[in-house]
């Protein structure tokens, strides 16, 4: 992919950003906890989320899709699938489905693409094993494929060492199939879509800050009836685009969940002018965000990392042009994403002429002039898209961009509103 340097001003409204990936995955998975048909509007039709939907179908659900609305009718009992369950590139799918299937009678094998099969799974496998789950895989369960022999699980009182929405979600789903109430704690609050959605479906969960009490299901949950909002993680690329080029963009129908817009708050702290307009609040608070570029200043980011972990590569693009030295700390989780995002971000910024320093848990970036370069995406969609946005300042060539299709199929189309993109 080649990105041309921006040669004009823009003031645009974007209302065709991809639907929220995290919520779409959960719609497919959580619909299996009901005994009625769930109706989902605006489901993300990207490779990974469609894989989550396909897995639901392989487990016995009936899927109806007219291109606009997806209806999921769960089976009376989830069935042991004939086929291996392919999660594609999605850590969300493999980890959350592991929690669900660990408590269901049957044998299940979860796998993914070559990148997912390199990502660590013990972070979810070990907590599940501690409550009776039978899970195996390569490197004693650390790498997919994962083989799960599902069955009855015990209740638990578990304190996680990391703030991870995926681990938390897996353990909550396991707890719903346990024998007694369970207790889950995490060091800080991670993204809370699972709690919000399950409560909306009728699950009995008591939440207090970063502690959750989960009660076993006494009956099937209510069906979902939801319109998936726009993904703020995807929208954030264009927020950065406006910020670094001193232009203006209106981003429509995003979830304004506080655990999902922390990156916008950091960008605002750096000097961008940002306005939040709440329009509704049912399963999730939903509204518009207006971003207007301005002079950017360096910032230190070390708190609420779990709330902005996916957006840090894009945020690093703003740091690369900000006045001063920006620092990111406590973000070691970046090393076990679709790529080692610390190394991927820093090595590519250095190609662009930016001074950097790499830490075990983050990095430092000194803002400067951006040079055009040939970027290695490392097969990571967020690295590819972040440097595409940075390319607005200098032009950029990015290698291995097929990965963008897994999460944001129309990214190039939207970016074309600003500058020419040659796929």
Question: Would you mind describing this structure in some detail?
Answer:
The protein is an alpha/beta fold and 423 residues long. The protein has helices at 21-30, 47-58, 91-102, 122-130, 138-141, 165-176, 193-200, 232-245, 262-270, 312-319, 341-351, 381-390, 411-415, and strands at 2-3, 11-14, 38-41, 62-65, 69-73, 85-86, 106-111, 134-137, 143-150, 157-159, 182-185, 205-208, 211-214, 225-227, 248-255, 273-281, 285-292, 300-301, 325-328, 355-359, 362-366, 374-376, 396-399, 421-422. The strands form six sheets. The protein has a four-stranded mixed beta sheet.
Comma- or semicolon-separated keywords:
alpha/beta, single chain, 4-stranded mixed β-sheet, UDP-n-acetylglucosamine1-carboxyvinyl-transferase, Chain, 24 strands, 423 residues
Give the structure's gist in a few sentences:
The protein has 423 residues and is α/β, with parallel strands linked by helices. It has helices spanning 21-30, 47-58, 91-102, 122-130, 138-141, 165-176, 193-200, 232-245, 262-270, 312-319, 341-351, 381-390, 411-415, and strands spanning 2-3, 11-14, 38-41, 62-65, 69-73, 85-86, 106-111, 134-137, 143-150, 157-159, 182-185, 205-208, 211-214, 225-227, 248-255, 273-281, 285-292, 300-301, 325-328, 355-359, 362-366, 374-376, 396-399, 421-422.
């Amino acid at each position: 992919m080649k990105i041309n340097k921006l040669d004009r001003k823009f003031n645009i409204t974007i209302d065709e950003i991809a639907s929220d990936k995290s919520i779409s995955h959960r719609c497919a998975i959580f619909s299996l906890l009901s005994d009625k048909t769930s109706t989902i509007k605006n489901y993300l039709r990207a490779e990974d989320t469609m894989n989550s939907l396909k897995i639901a179908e392989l487990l016995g659900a009936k899927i109806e899709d007219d291109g606009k609305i997806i209806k999921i009718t769960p089976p009376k009992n989830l069935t042991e699938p004939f086929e291996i369950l392919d999660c594609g590139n999605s850590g969300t799918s493999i980890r959350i489905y592991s929690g669900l299937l660990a408590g269901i009678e049957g044998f299940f094998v979860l796998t993914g693409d070559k990148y997912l099969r390199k990502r660590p799974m013990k972070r979810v496998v070990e907590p599940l094993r501690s409550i009776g789950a039978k899970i195996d895989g390569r490197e004693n369960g650390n790498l997919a494929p994962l083989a799960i022999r599902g069955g009855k699980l015990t209740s638990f009182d578990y304190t996680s060492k990391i703030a991870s929405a995926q681990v938390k979600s897996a353990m909550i789903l396991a707890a719903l199939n346990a024998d007694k109430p369970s207790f889950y704690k995490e060091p800080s609050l991670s993204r809370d879509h699972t709690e919000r959605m399950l409560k909306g479906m009728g699950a009995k969960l008591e939440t207090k800050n970063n502690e959750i009490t989960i009660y076993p299901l006494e009956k099937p949950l209510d069906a979902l009836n939801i319109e998936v909002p726009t993904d703020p993680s995807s929208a954030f690329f264009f927020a950065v685009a406006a910020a670094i080029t001193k232009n203006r963009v209106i981003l429509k129908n995003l979830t304004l969940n506080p655990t999902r817009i922390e990156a916008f708050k950091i960008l605002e702290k750096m000097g961008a002018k940002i306005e939040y307009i709440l329009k509704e609040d049912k399963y999730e608070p939903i509204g518009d965000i207006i971003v207007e570029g301005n002079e950017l200043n360096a910032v230190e980011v070390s708190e609420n990392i779990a709330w902005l972990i996916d957006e840090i590569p894009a945020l690093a693009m703003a740091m690369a042009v900000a006045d001063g030295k920006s620092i990111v700390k406590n973000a070691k989780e970046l090393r076990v994403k679709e790529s080692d995002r610390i190394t991927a971000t820093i090595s590519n910024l250095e190609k662009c002429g930016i001074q950097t320093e790499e830490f075990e848990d983050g990095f430092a970036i000194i803002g400067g002039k951006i040079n055009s370069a040939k970027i290695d995406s490392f097969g990571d969609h967020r690295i590819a898209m972040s440097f595409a946005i940075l390319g607005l300042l200098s032009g950029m060539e990015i290698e291995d961009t097929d990965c963008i299709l897994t999460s944001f199929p129309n990214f190039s189309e939207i970016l074309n509103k600003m500058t020419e993109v040659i796929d």
